[in-house]
Amino acid sequence: MNKEKWTKSPWTISIGSALFSLLLTMGYDYSKEKPILTTVWSIIKWIRNLLWTIINFDLKVWWIIIAVALFILVIAIIDKFKKEETFKPDFYSYREGTFKRWKWTWTWKIRSSDNVWVISNLEAHCPNCDTPMIERSSIMYGLSFDCPRCEFQSKEGQCDEPHKIERIILDNIDRKRNEKKPSP
User: Fold this and answer.
1) Cα separation, 61 vs 67, whole angstroms
2) What string of pLDDT tens digits covers the 184 residues of the chain?
3) Angle at CA of residue 178, ends 103 and 116, nearest 5°
4) Residue in 95, 112, 113, 93 with CA at minimum distance from that of residue 104
5) CA–CA distance from 39 to each of 20, 28, 35, 128 (Å)?
6) Closest C-alpha to 95, from 106, 85, 103
7) DSSP labels for the chain?
8) Closest by alpha carbon to 162, among 125, 129, 130?
9) Any bridge partners for residue 146, and if so which?
10) Does the pTM exceed 0.70?
11) Alpha-carbon torsion 109, 111, 115, 118, what sign?
12) Do residues 82 and 74 lie in contact, with contact meaning Cβ atoms separated by under 8 Å?
């Protein structure tokens, strides 16, 4: 308890601060007489001189314009020639199937926002002539498909909704993956 009171005393703090500043001043004066850390100081001077040279460099505006134009050109060339999709998953070749008595086709594309493969261009084909059908949706008649070639029209309950077909496709892929996994 006495020791704590002694260290927190205002007299101790003021005398200690004065002695500490005296020791620091003596140490600084001693280091000025002797060359200490001259290599570090010369490196700092060299960096300062380099920065000063760069800052005072005589720069023309047209140099900057040409540099920016070249940078944009290089980026455009790289972007044009780079491959769109370097990695294609094993299900990439799975692009058609028969579901609910109809043939369906689709393509795969990568959604760049979260880097996920998604089904795109899902189309139902006519059961008579295999032509991609036109999807129609109305409040009164619901969902229907019409063939532009042979005038086939789907009837109530004959067609299935594309989002259900998409779910079946994804489920088929999941089932195929689970078959490939070895059992523990």
Assistant:
1) 10
2) 466 677 778 888 888 888 888 888 887 777 776 666 677 778 889 999 999 888 887 878 888 899 999 999 999 888 877 765 567 778 888 889 888 778 888 888 888 777 788 888 888 888 888 888 888 776 666 777 888 888 888 776 666 778 788 888 888 888 888 877 665 5
3) 70
4) 95
5) 29, 18, 10, 88
6) 106
7) -HHHHHHT-HHHHHHHHHHHHHHHHHHHHHHHHS--SHHHHHHHHHHHHHHHHHHT----HHHHHHHHHHHHHHHHHHHHHS-S-S---GGGG--EEEETTEEEEEEEEEETTTTEEEEEEEEEE-TTT-PBPEEEEETTTEEEEE-TTT--BPPTTTS--HHHHHHHHHHHHHHHHHHHSPP-
8) 125
9) 134, 153
10) no
11) negative
12) no
Sign of the CA dihedral running 158, 162, 167, 173: positive
Domain-by-domain residue ranges, the chain? 2-80, 90-180
Q: What type of residue sits at position 14?
A: S
Altogether, the residues listed in the chain come to a count of 184
Maximal CA-CA distance, the chain: 106
Amino acid, single-letter form, for residue 26: M
